[in-house]
Amino acid sequence: MMQGYDQSFSQEDTFENNAPEKLLPTGTEAFGSIGQLEARGVRQNFELRGKAVILFRYPAGGPAVVEMPVEKGAIYYSGSSLEERSYARLLDALLDKTAVTRPVRLRTLDGRDKLKIEARFARLGNRKLVYIVNFNPVPVRLNIDLPPGFFTALLDLRDQHETQRGPITVPARQTAIYEMF
Predict the structure, then answer these.
(1) Which pTM does this prediction carry?
(2) Where a domain ends, among 97, 131, 152?
(3) Per DSSP, what are the bridge partners of residue 175?
(4) Which pLDDT belongs to residue 67?
């Protein structure tokens, strides 16, 4: 039994455990440019009801990722788990489409992608805080990209070491917590 399961998108569901598949974009303006997505693991086949828009399809043609308008917003639903890079591309496209501002962005300096790096920015009163988690088995060097004048120095809140604006290194499998000045 599936408790709390929402069937807003479907009248009938089937679950399948198949090999990885490419999800094909339907050409919608915001999502067609990110190309195919790769799904892995358990997959939900579902039928649409209402005003849902299909964003990506399974190779057999069924809906895989959909957008359903709700009052002044929308619900985005994926019927399968996405591979990390695909998930990152989809989230970036969703954030861009919904005009979510992201004043703090990380860029790797060693040419690696940003997989297995998590970062969050928050304001606490007048304070600007950022934490970065490196889930990789090796250290990662990063630049923090911000609008001009956003900060001039970082204070590492763990060791109280201050760094001028520039590259930072987050050790393997560690969390760094900074305050921006």
Answers:
(1) 0.73
(2) 97
(3) 133
(4) 93
